[in-house]
Amino acid sequence: MSKAELKSRVCEAIDRAADEIIGLGESILRHPETGFNEKRTSTLVAERMAALGLEPQTGLALTGVKGRLKGGRPGPRLALVSELDSLRTSDHPLADPATGAAHSCGHNAQIAGMLGAAIGLTAAGAVPQLAGEVVFFAVPAEEFIDVAERLGRVEKGEIEFMLGKPELVAKGHFDDVDMAMMIHTGSRDGADTRAFLAQSSNGAVVKQIRFRGRAAHAGSLPQLGINALNAALLAMNAIAMQRETFWDKDTVRIHPIITKGGDAVSVVPAEVTMETFVRAGSLEAILDANQKVDRSLRAGAMAIGAAVEIRTIPGYLPQRNDRGLGEIFGANVESLFGPGSFKTGGHRTGSTDMGDLAHLMPVIHPYVVAAEGKAHGADWRINEPEHGYLTPAKLLAMTAIDLLYDDAAAARRVLAEFRPAMTKEAYLAYARGLFKTEHYAAPEA
Ligand SMILES: [Zn+2]
Ligand SMILES: [Zn+2]
């Protein structure tokens, strides 16, 4: 069967299974689960994979699920990745009222798309005609949230890294993968095509910060207290005053939140906690901005006579999308939606842990534009279900066929042209080296 025929058979199979695929996406939408807690979603994926004969492995980095289809001949192993986790956006209309968890980043569509691709490829009997393997990989915890909860998991030894893909790499679960792609949902607000692929995006380190002061009566004896909230506010202002020193090309983003501001309004705050990301477009720029943040935090503590504990945690590495993979993907978008329906290039200032994988193997992280509202916002909504759930299924399957057809000639070409930025060992050593805890106490007056 020709490659074009194979692709159209797979797309027809996906259209026949439309109700089921959309139903999977909507079911996950209504049961959002945050990173490393994605039990229901993970069980759903494993059951669906088992029904398709993918023999899933489960419990990878706590909740990850991996299944595979082997081609007719050995060859490169392509992972179709999807992310299991939700975010927390408590004012989203479909937020879990107890936890505030909500799919305001649209990861539910990723799972539906990946399972849809598996349904299409198996129903059309496509895989025996391919070389290599298609690996279906539902991965935990792409959103870096719940820092305290995840630090607790690290301390208990449940995980080493606090994001899904780095943790899976460390545990060896990407050792049997040569290249990877996933499709994220994009919002129509700010996009004028049906799909797009940036060239790159920011990386980040994550900070957990604790200011310690001294409690005292806030009305009658603040003179005896040390106000940890004032130290934190000074530090935030000092961080803001660093901004003129950042180069535009480095696209630095620093956005702290206060996670605890005090104990009681009548007590001088003795403990204040903050979290922040320090994002930028290159590793060098992240480390430079991070030093300035540390300096600012110490300055806040010093001025008020407080102490500060600064924890630095590896977050995301900057993302680089593979050009060859992107061209194959883009051609499939245009074959479905016509010329001009796909755009590529530019830099995005968000982050993804696909960036970590991108240092090790060719990857792409494109967007299918099928939502309205703001990503991570309360108004985010997949407003075109067919495009949101079925198009990613088709594009994943079509791109897999392109890569692995003809004895996987295209996949072999992509691999031959790829130069990894790091070996797995160097990557893990780098990421482990980012973990740091500093204790700074202001000198006694
Ligand atoms: Zn997100
Ligand atoms: Zn996302």
Key features of this structure:
445 residues; alpha/beta; 6-stranded mixed beta sheet; 6-stranded antiparallel beta sheet; 12 helices; binds zinc ion
Uncertain runs are none
Rounded mean pLDDT score: 97
What composes the largest sheet? 6 strands, mixed
Q: What's the total count of β strands?
A: 22
- The number of helical runs is 12
Note the gap between the termini.
82 Å
Helical proportion, percent range:
25-40%
Assembly type: single chain
Strand content: 15-25%
Give a written overview of the molecule.
This protein is of the alpha/beta class and about 450 residues long. Helices cover about 40% and strands about 25% of the residues. Helix 1 (about 5-15) packs antiparallel against helix 11 (about 385-415). The longest helix is centred in the C-terminal third of the chain and has 33 residues, at about 385-415. The radius of gyration is 23 Å and the shape is elongated. The structure holds zinc ion (2 copies). One zinc ion binds near residues 87, 105 and 143.
Question: Quick summary of this structure?
Answer:
Helix content is 38%, strand content 24%. The chain has helices at residues 3-16, 18-29, 39-51, 107-123, 147-155, 164-170, 228-240, 283-304, 323-337, 354-358, 385-417, 424-434; strands spanning 57-60, 64-70, 73-83, 87-88, 101-102, 131-139, 179-181, 184-187, 195-197, 200-201, 203-212, 253-254, 257-260, 271-280, 307-316, 319-320, 342-344, 347-348, 363-364, 367-372, 381-382, 436-441. The strands form 5 sheets. Strands 1-2-6-3-7-19 form a 6-stranded mixed sheet, with helices on both faces. Strands 11, 12, 13, 14, 15 and 22 form a 6-stranded antiparallel sheet that branches. Strands 8, 9, 17, 20 and 21 form a 5-stranded mixed sheet that branches.
